[in-house]
Amino acid sequence: MKTSPASAARLAPAATWWRSLSRLAPWLGWGVLGVLVLLAALGPLYLSAFDLVLAFTLFNYMTMAQSWNLLGGYGGQFSLGHSLFVGAGSYTIAVLLLHSGLPLLLDLVLSGLLAAALATLAALLLMRLREAYFSIGSLGLAMAALTWMLNWSFTGATSGLNLPPAATLDYSTLYYLALGLLVATTLTIVLLVRSPFGLRLMAIRDDQEAAAELGVNSFPVKLVTFAISAFFVGLAGGLIALNKLEIEPDSAFSMNWVITMIIITIIGGIATSTGPLLGAVVFFTLQQVLQNSQALSSLLTGLLLILIIRLAPEGLWPLALKLGRRLGEALVSRLDRSGSTTTATALAAEEAVRGRSTLSDG
Amino acid sequence: MVLYHLIDGFFLGGLYVTIALGLTLVFGVMNTVNLAQGEVLIGSAYLTYTLASLTHLDPLLCLLLVAPIMFVIGYLVQRLLLNPLIPRGQETLLVATFGLLLVAETLFGLIYGNNTLSLSASYTLTGVTIFGDTVRTIYVIALVAALFLVVGTHLLLTYLPLGKAIRAAAEDPGAAASIGINVPLVYGITFGLAAAISAVGGTLIGLSFGFGPTTGSSWLLRSFTVIVLGGMGSLWGTLLGGLLIGVLEEVAASIVGPQFRDLIVFAFLVIVLIVRPEGFFGQRVGVAK
Fold first, then answer.
1. B235 is in which domain, residue-wise?
2. Is B106 within the bounds of a domain?
3. Residue B207 falls within a domain, yes or no?
4. What ipTM does this complex have?
5. Does residue B286 sit within a domain?
6. Distance between CA atoms of B191 and B19, rounded to whole angstroms?
7. Exposed end of chain B (fewer CB within 10 Å): N or C?
8. Average pLDDT for residues B193-214, to the nearest whole number?
9. Which residues of chain B does A296 touch, with a Cβ-Cβ cutoff of 8 Å?
C-alpha cells in the first residue's frame, strides 16, 4: 500500500475525533479527578456515619499506597518496612496527646515528622543496599521495632495506649482529615515525580551507575524520597490512631499495613499516580464484599496479586488504558472503513510518536 | 555460665542451618530471593503435623513423604510461576514470592486455624548432657541433620551430573542452554530440592518451637540473616553463618533477656547488611568449586 504524506494527513472524521480525544485525555483525567474530589468534599452531606468510616479507611489505604508507591514504584526501593511508619505515627500522636498539652493538629503533623525522621535514620542505614537486600533490611528494621515496642514499658508494652477522651473526633472531621491528607499526598507526589527531582529519582531506579555518570548523586535523592514517603504514612498512622482510640504494638506495627500498601499498588499499577487509587478501590471493595470471610478475602487478594504479576505485571490501570486505546482504535477503523484506508496507518504512526504520554498517568 | 550458652547456641545454630539452606540454594542458583521461604518451612511443618496425626508415626519419619511432596510443590512453583518471570527482573520475582507468602499464610489459617501448633515426639522434651550442659535432644538431631544436608548438597553439586548441570545453569544460563542443558527444568529441580531440604528445617521448627499461620516471616528473617552472614548463596557459608547466629543469639539473649531474642537477630541482620552486605564467607553455589 502506497501512501503519500498528503493522504495520510487527511483523516476520516472518526479518526480526527479520536485524535482530539486522546489529546484532551490528560485534561479529561484532571476534570474527572476534580469532580470526584468535589463529590468527596460534599460527602458528609449525603453519607451515613457508617459510610464515612468506610470512606475514612479507603482514603487512608489510598494515602499509604500512594506513599509506598513513591519509594517502591518511582524509586524502585521495594520497602517491606513501611509498617514501621504507620506504628510510629500512631504511637507519636498517642504519646503527645497523653503527655503534652499541644493542640491535636500539631500532634498530627509531629507524628508525620517523627516518621520522616525515623525514615531518614533508616535511610542512612539502608540506602547503600540494593533490591532484595534493601527489602529484607527494611523488614528487619520493622520487625525489630515491633519487638522493641512489645517490651517498652513507657508505651504500655503489649497492652499499648488509650488515647485521652479529648482526642475523640466526630466522623465527619475524621473523614475530612483523611480526605485532606489523601489530596495533599497525591498532589505532592504527582508534582514531585514530574519535577526534575522525580526524573532524577527514576533515572537512579532505572540505572544507578548511568545516573551517577550523568552527575546524579543518588544518596540525597533516595533519602528525601524515603522521608517524604514515610511522612505521609506517618500522618495516616496518626489518623488511624485517632479513629481507633486504643493502640497496641501488634496491630499498629502489623506487617499487614505494608502488605496492604504493596498489594494495592501492584494491583492498581506500580509507578503510576492513578494506579494506587484504583488499586485501593479494588482491594477495599473485595475486602468489604467478603467481610464475613476475612480468610477468603485475603486468599483472593493474594491470588489476584500473583495473577496480575504473571499476566499483566504493569497493573490494572495501565492495562485499562491499553484496552481503552485499543478499543477506541478498533472502533475508529470500523467507522472509517468506508473512508480513507490510510486511517489505521496514520493512527498507528501517531500512537508510535506520542506513545504513552497522551493517555497514561491521568 | 557462658560456656553453656555457647554450647546451646552451637546446637541451635544447627537448626538455623537447616532452615536457611533452601534459601541459599534458590539464591545461589536462580539469583531469586524467595520471600516465601518462611511459608515453605511452616507449610512443611503443617504437612508433617497432618501426616503425624493421621498415621501416629514419628514426625521425622513422616519426612520421607513430606519432603517429596514439598519437592513437587517447589518444582511446580518454579516451572509455572517463577521461570516465566525471570526475564522481567528481580523486583517481579520479589512480588511473585510475596504473593505466594500471602496465599500460603491464608491457606494455613483456613485449614488449620490460627492457633499455635507444635509437633511432638519422644525426644522433644528430653535433653542430652554435653560438657556438663543439658542440650535439647532435638537441637542435637538438628545439628546432625544440618551436617548431613550441607555435605550431601555439596556432594550432589560436585559429583553428580545433575549437580554439574545446576552449577552450569547458575554460572551462565545462556551458555548452559547452548550446550544442551534444559535450564528451566534444572531451575525447577533446584527449587524442588530447596523445598525438600526446607521440609527438614520446617519439621525441626515444629518439633522445637510452636508454629502458626503467620510465624513464617520471622523464620524468613532468621534464614536471611544466616545467608547474609555466610555470603549469599554459599553452602559452607550457610553452615558457618547458621552456627554463628545460633551462638550469638543464645549468648546475647542470656545477657539482655530472652524476650529480646528476635530483636537481637533482626538488629544483627541490619548491622551485617550495612557493614558487609556481601557476607563474610564463601561464594555462590554456582561459582564455588
1. 2-275
2. yes
3. yes
4. 0.79
5. no
6. 14
7. C
8. 93
9. 110
